[in-house]
Amino acid sequence: MRYIYLLFPILILLSCSSADEQEQTEMINKVMAVHDAVMPEMGKISKFKKQAQTQSEVLFSDSLKANDEQAMELENLAIELDAANESMMVWMRNFSKDFEGMEHEEIIQYLEEKKAEIDEVKKGMEAVLDKADSRLKN
After folding, report:
1. Residue 27 falls within a domain, yes or no?
2. What's the confidence (pLDDT) of residue 107?
């Protein structure tokens, strides 16, 4: 009977640990779901960037001032596309699943911060892709 009293606190600790791990796994899955949804957009960004640069070069080669303004708009779009691409690359370089030595609360806070960051990366990528899509269709 005495062993039951010793076993009970151990079982409680184990169940808490399991719940913590489950919460961490759920948070990682939420973060990675956004990442995985945005990652395929990297190809579109590269395609639009090349397209914007090519169109810009063609317009700069013409001597009309109106073409220079359009070319500058396209150059700026290419810069925005590159920045969106770089924001994703930076996020990926800075994301780590190595939680060695971290307490559960620290891990959850870290994952919440990374979720907020990848949400911002996603918003930025979507905005510049929408802009490129509408600008480069014309």
Report:
1. no
2. 92
